[in-house]
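The pair is listed for reference:
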Amino acid sequence: MAMISEKIQTADWKSEKHVPVIECSESVQADEIFQVQVSLGKEVAHPNTTGHHIRWIMLYFQPTSAKFPYEVAKVDFSAHGESAQGADQGAVYTHHCGCACMKTSEGGTLYAMAYCNIHGLWQSTKELTVT
């Protein structure tokens, strides 16, 4: 039986539209709040239609000394042009981008995971240094 971890895809976000992009400073001050933005389609646009869209992005942080990561945020994207008139006829489309503010006392790794309703799970990482 396949493990779900075997289904998580990665690539360079500059050439693959499904890979989440993590944007924040690479180095932050210990115990000071900083902002992290997660998005898709920064270089290559991802569709946002009823039939093909990003459903959610989750952000995790694993401090260097921790055994497991902490869930920092989950952003759900619920409007993709659906309406009573039919697919892609609605007036509202959410954009696959979210922000979270956090603080930490030690460095580690940020993980972002996104789910495309057609192409599955995608992950990216970013190292974070604390001074």
About this structure: DSSP finds no helices and eight strands in the chain. The domain at 14-130 is CATH 2.60.40.730 (Immunoglobulin-like). Residues 30 and 105 are 5 Å apart (CA to CA). The chain has one domain: 14-130.
